[in-house]
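Supplementary Methods. Inverse-folding protocol.

Structures were first reduced to a discrete structure-token string of length 689. This string, shown here, constituted the complete conditioning input.
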């Protein structure tokens, strides 16, 4: 696992130092980023296998059909695991290189050569892409193993594993692409795989609707990426990273701002950030392994990758950077507030994911001071959040697929492994030392308190939001943990139940621990939740590892001392935990949720995000469409049909004159002759005078 593999990395990428430095990185110039080389070291030639192996797995499982029902699941696991082995080889090879040789562009073949556009298909291998590759393949393999048991009784599980392999392949295309156009191919691929997996149980209407909602809202975000591609081609004449990043410092601020905002729209769609976040909660309709892989650890973090990868563009667009920070700050509070009111365990975790990605987006928008911390939190979050989603699936497995936390309680007595592994993830997301979240999320909070360009108001505003989010996170995640594993039993064990709001009437439940194939991945992810953050932070190792991409930065002090920020954060976290303990562990939790305050009722409805989307976009769109249809029928069709009617009516009148009588024709000819003679005489008379 990466926690072991990364140990030798510390000797290469970092120097021993204090685990909690008193100062933070400040700013860098774009020139400090290591330029890419086209000289491909031997082991890097294996990189295409990273994509080809899971793609082969998907193709085999889909083409062979039901003949692979017996072995298809394990074949999918094998392809994902093989891709992880290749990722380890590439990673270790990169560690052996000096930092200034760790950015490699590996061109595979030419794709488009038309006019001034020359696009090839290639891979960019650098610390950023390799970090994502390790995360996707390692966590992906664990989730594949978990799914073998979770989907054991599903008659279509072969197709499920084909879609999982397809997703892994598409995600690897996205993070390994050496141009925005190839990245777009992977971007669309993960969107397709997400649609297929969310709607996997499409015989239920709710799942099919959720899949369509996610697909459509992601298409809105994709429009931003398409616009960015067009602007890049118009402004730089190319869409590959090397050319765009090299020319960005010389480009105009207006162009870079437009591109940066367009890329942000794409990031908001894929990473469920405000205002394109409404699809994520509904996406929990898919099988739980999908939620763990796609909607916790990998796909929803693609927006963070896009912003960090596009750092040279944002460095020249301070307005776009500020908008990125604002979007992250709004979303982290938005998701946290929603999480406080959700009773569905998976939807509560989805709200948490939205909030935590908001932290990452905020950090990425801070510029060089936050790039490495955004990716740091992305990696640790991938472990503890995937572990908690798998834990939620284990609870559902033991509770007959129930998801309502108000009908759980006291499960720690029956599901020890799930309770412990979930609890370790809970401590990690709270940011309790020495768990992983402490090293990553707290660094984002500290970075948010650093003044940018001497503007202290930004430090107080965004730092305050990040600090407040930590306290709310502690409350709603503790609420989830206590309602599920502690407090009083709120499910029917067949021994009779009380009446009223504490009634446990319902199906008889027999909670039990999940099988080894499900608990083993949870244990591995729990170990990462405990140890990975400290290992990566040791000696500033992870920041140094990413420095060829994010640059080497100087140090700056936040507006408050680091020790004060750490203390204040822990105090808020402790208050959130104690409040949740008193309300959901000590007190009896009613089965029927109380009416609650106005904010609580709004949070239960996702702060009316669907209603706002309907009012702002859907209904005006419907009215516009109906108006266009009316105009088309009345003006366009009406005009042509009216002209046709006029011609037809004229023909009807003229046809009445053709009665077949010779005398009528003779009279008509005589009348015509008289008219002609009269005209001739009139003309002759007028000329003579």
């Amino acid at each position: 696992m990466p926690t072991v593999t990364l140990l030798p990395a510390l000797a290469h990428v970092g120097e021993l130092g204090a685990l909690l430095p008193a100062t933070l990185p400040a700013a860098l110039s774009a020139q400090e980023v290591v330029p890419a080389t086209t000289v491909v070291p031997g082991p890097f030639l294996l990189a295409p296998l990273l994509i080809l192996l899971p793609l082969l797995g998907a193709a085999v499982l889909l083409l062979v059909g039901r003949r692979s029902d017996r072995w298809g699941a394990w074949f999918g696991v094998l392809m994902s695991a093989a891709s992880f082995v290749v990722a380890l080889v590439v990673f270790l090879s990169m560690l052996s290189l000096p930092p200034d040789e760790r950015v490699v562009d590996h061109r595979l073949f030419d794709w488009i050569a038309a006019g001034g556009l020359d696009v090839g298909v290639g891979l960019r291998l650098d610390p950023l892409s390799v970090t994502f590759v390790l995360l996707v393949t390692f966590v992906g393999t664990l989730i594949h193993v978990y799914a073998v048991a979770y989907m054991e009784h599903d008659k279509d599980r072969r197709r499920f594993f084909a879609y999982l392999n397809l997703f892994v392949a598409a995600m690897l295309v996205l993070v390994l692409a050496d141009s925005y156009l190839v990245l777009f191919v992977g971007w669309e691929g993960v969107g397709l795989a997400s649609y297929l997996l969310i709607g996997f149980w499409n015989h239920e209407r709710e799942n099919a609707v959720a899949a369509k909602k996610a697909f459509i809202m992601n298409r809105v975000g994709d429009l931003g990426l398409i616009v960015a591609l067009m602007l890049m081609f118009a402004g730089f004449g190319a869409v590959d990273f090397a050319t765009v990043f090299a020319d960005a410092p010389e480009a105009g601020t207006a162009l870079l701002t437009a591109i940066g905002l367009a890329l942000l729209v794409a990031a908001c769609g894929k990473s469920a950030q405000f205002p394109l976040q409404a699809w994520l909660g509904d996406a929990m309709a898919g099988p739980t392994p999908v939620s763990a892989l796609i909607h916790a650890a990998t796909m929803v973090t693609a927006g963070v990758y896009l912003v960090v990868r596009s750092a040279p563009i944002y460095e020249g667009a301070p307005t776009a950077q500020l908008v990125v920070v604002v979007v992250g700050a709004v979303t982290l509070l938005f998701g946290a507030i929603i999480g406080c009111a959700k009773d569905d365990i998976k939807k509560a975790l989805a709200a948490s994911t939205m909030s935590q990605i908001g932290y990452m987006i905020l950090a990425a928008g801070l510029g060089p001071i936050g790039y490495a911390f955004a990716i740091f939190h992305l990696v640790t979050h991938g472990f503890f959040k995937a572990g908690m989603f798998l834990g939620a699936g284990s609870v559902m497995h033991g509770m007959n697929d129930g998801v309502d936390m108000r009908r759980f309680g006291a499960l720690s007595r029956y599901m020890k492994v799930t309770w412990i592994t979930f609890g370790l993830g809970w401590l990690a997301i709270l940011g309790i030392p020495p768990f992983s979240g402490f090293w990553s999320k707290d660094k984002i909070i500290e970075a948010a308190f650093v003044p940018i360009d001497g503007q202290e108001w930004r430090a107080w505003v965004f730092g305050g939001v990040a600090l407040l989010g930590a306290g709310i996170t502690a409350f709603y995640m503790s609420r989830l943990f206590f309602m599920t594993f502690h407090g009083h039993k709120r499910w029917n064990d067949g021994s009779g139940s009380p009446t009223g709001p504490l009634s446990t009437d319902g199906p008889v439940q027999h909670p039990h621990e999940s099988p080894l194939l499900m608990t083993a991945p949870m244990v591995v992810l729990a170990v990462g939740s405990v140890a990975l953050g400290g290992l990566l932070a040791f000696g500033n190792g992870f920041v140094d590892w990413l420095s060829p991409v994010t640059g080497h930065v100087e140090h700056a002090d936040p507006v408050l001392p680091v020790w004060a920020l750490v203390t204040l954060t822990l105090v808020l976290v402790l208050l959130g935990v104690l409040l949740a303990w008193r309300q959901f562990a000590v007190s009896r939790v009613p089965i029927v949720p109380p009416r609650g305050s106005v904010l609580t009722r709004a949070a239960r409805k996702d702060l009316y995000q669907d209603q706002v989307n309907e009012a702002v976009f859907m209904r005006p769109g419907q009215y516009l469409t109906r108006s266009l249809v009316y105009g088309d029928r009345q003006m366009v069709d009406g005009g042509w049909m009216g002209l046709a009617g006029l011609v037809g009516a004229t023909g009807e009148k003229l046809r009445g004159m053709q009665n077949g009588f010779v005398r009528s024709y003779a009279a008509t000819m005589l009348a015509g002759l008289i008219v002609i003679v009269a005209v001739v005489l009139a003309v002759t008379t007028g000329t003579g005078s």
